[in-house]
């Protein structure tokens, strides 16, 4: 069997490793249009902000690793056309050489691309995006220039907030904008997102929320400022972090699509073409909250999708467990983690939701060092099944969100948490744990 994988970041790599390590007789061909593979983009802000020594550790594999396993791999080679009836494709190397490959099974793992606002001045020098390693290098180079002091960031999602911290750590004058009323609005309700907003401001970052970018301003071909619906701001560097859209450019009219253009797949990540799978950021996944296909672009989801697709190609039937969109962020000392849906997301998807908040110390009051923890559990009115959770603290409570992720996956109810077997030891928690107390405090009557 011959399997061709188009795209070799997290999803494609997971699929390739699963195939190559299976011990089965599988010919694997990998095609990558970029000059590198396996870049952990979530670490860009860490090395740009000089919180780690360099970027070498952000690459966890390379071309030689896969060649050693017997794969044929093309780097800096772009697929130009796929003939789904003939089960073949044509690609072109950076030198213009044409490559033709047939396949028994095709895995599309082309990922996502940054949303580029179509604003006047978009071609000015000094406007950046952040996804690829090379884009991180360009931002790092811009920060190294002492003439670049005013950094404007458009978009206050995870990447925008992280690069704002990085720029501030590099001594820049940082302003961040977002059309939403708070930062991190896709993941957190205002009561939690506003904690991050205040955290940014306490560290000297100017926040402008509920504000829309309208035009890039420039002189002599270089950006000098930004015009929004509320004002005009000087800029030496502008970084766009508005979000991502699926890069799903093949199979128009042949492969089914989701509403945002992503490939629509089943729970094995197979498309409507039995010989074609789509994985990672270019494809949908099954949401355990809505119980239907949804789109959440996260590296962890991408890895699992690659494993599941490859396992099915190898002949073992396996459905993905579904996703909750579990995520986390650490800015300065503040840590936010969440999984599932916020109240805002529940409203968007027509879910009748209630919530319970509980805030307490992590440890008993007699412990000399202590941290506050704020917890919200979102649950369905009537069934009481958990739909989401959000946690904020300066204490590292990140592993706790995995329990809530599993709870959503397994349809656990909020009232079940009230009697959950949770141990107590003063070094770790309180005897009346905030998880228990939230479960006991939840209003489980049907409205």
From TrEMBL:
The Enzyme Commission number assigned here is 1.6.3.4
Q: Which residues form the Pyridine nucleotide-disulphide oxidoreductase dimerisation domain?
A: 333-429
Q: Name one GO molecular function term.
A: oxidoreductase activity
EC main group: oxidoreductase
Superkingdom as given in the UniProt entry: Bacteria
Q: What InterPro entries does its record include?
A: FAD-bd_OxRdtase, FAD/NAD-bd_sf, FAD/NAD-binding_dom, FAD/NAD-linked_Rdtase_dimer_sf, NOXase, Pyr_nucl-diS_OxRdtase_dimer
**FAD/NAD(P)-binding domain segment(s):** 1-306
Q: What is the name listed in the Swiss-Prot or TrEMBL entry for this protein?
A: NADH oxidase
One Pfam family here:
Pyr_redox_dim
Question: Which keywords does the record carry?
Answer: FAD, Flavoprotein, NAD, Oxidation, Oxidoreductase, Redox-active center
Question: PANTHER family, from UniProt?
Answer: NAD(P)H SULFUR OXIDOREDUCTASE (COA-DEPENDENT), PYRIDINE NUCLEOTIDE-DISULFIDE OXIDOREDUCTASE DOMAIN-CONTAINING
Q: Which organism is it from?
A: Suicoccus acidiformans
Q: Which family does the UniProt entry place this protein in?
A: Belongs to the class-III pyridine nucleotide-disulfide oxidoreductase family.
Q: What's the cofactor?
A: FAD
User: Which reaction equation describes what this protein catalyses?
Assistant: 2 NADH + O2 + 2 H(+) = 2 NAD(+) + 2 H2O
Q: Does the keyword Transmembrane apply?
A: no
**Where would one find the signal peptide in this protein?**
none
């Amino acid at each position: 069997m011959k399997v061709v994988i188009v795209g070799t970041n997290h999803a494609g790599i997971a699929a390739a490793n699963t195939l190559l390590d299976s011990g089965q007789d599988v010919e694997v061909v990998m095609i990558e249009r970029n000059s590198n593979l396996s870049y952990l983009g979530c670490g860009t802000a860490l090395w740009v902000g000089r919180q780690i020594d360099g970027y070498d550790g952000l690459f966890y594999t390379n071309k030689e690793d896969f060649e050693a396993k017997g794969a044929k791999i093309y780097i800096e080679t772009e697929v130009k056309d796929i003939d789904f009836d003939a089960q073949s494709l044509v690609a072109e190397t950076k030198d213009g050489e044409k490559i033709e490959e047939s396949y028994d099974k095709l895995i599309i793992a082309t990922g996502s691309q940054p949303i580029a606002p179509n604003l006047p001045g978009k071609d000015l020098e000094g406007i950046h995006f952040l996804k690829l390693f090379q884009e991180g290098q360009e931002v790092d180079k811009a920060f190294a220039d002492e003439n670049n002091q005013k950094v404007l960031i458009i978009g206050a999602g995870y990447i925008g907030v992280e690069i704002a911290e990085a720029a501030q750590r590099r001594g820049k004058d940082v302003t961040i904008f977002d059309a939403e009323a708070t930062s991190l609005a896709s993941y957190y309700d205002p009561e939690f997102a506003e904690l991050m907003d205040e955290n940014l401001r306490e560290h000297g970052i100017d926040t402008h929320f509920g504000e829309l970018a309208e035009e890039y301003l420039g002189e002599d071909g270089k950006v000098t400022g930004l015009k929004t619906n509320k004002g005009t701001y000087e800029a030496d560097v502008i970084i766009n972090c508005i979000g991502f859209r699926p890069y799903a450019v093949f199979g128009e009219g042949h492969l089914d699509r989701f509403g945002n253009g992503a490939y629509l797949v089943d729970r094995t990540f197979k498309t409507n073409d039995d010989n074609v799978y789509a994985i990672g950021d270019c494809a949908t996944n099954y949401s355990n909250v809505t119980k239907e296909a949804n789109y959440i672009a996260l590296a962890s989801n991408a890895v699992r999708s690659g494993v599941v697709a490859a396992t099915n190609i190898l002949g073992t039937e396996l459905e993905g467990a579904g996703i909750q969109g579990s995520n986390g962020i650490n800015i300065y000392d503040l840590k936010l983690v969440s999984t599932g849906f916020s109240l805002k997301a529940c409203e968007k998807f027509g879910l009748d939701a209630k919530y319970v908040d509980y805030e307490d110390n992590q440890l008993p009051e007699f412990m000399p060092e202590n941290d506050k923890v704020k917890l919200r559990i979102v649950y369905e009115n009537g069934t009481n099944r958990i739909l989401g959770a959000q946690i904020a603290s300066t204490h590292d409570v990140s592993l706790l969100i995995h329990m809530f992720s599993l709870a959503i996956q397994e349809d656990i109810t909020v009232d079940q948490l009230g009697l959950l077997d949770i141990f107590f030891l003063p070094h770790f928690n309180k005897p009346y744990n905030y998880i228990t107390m939230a479960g006991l405090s939840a209003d489980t009557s049907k409205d």
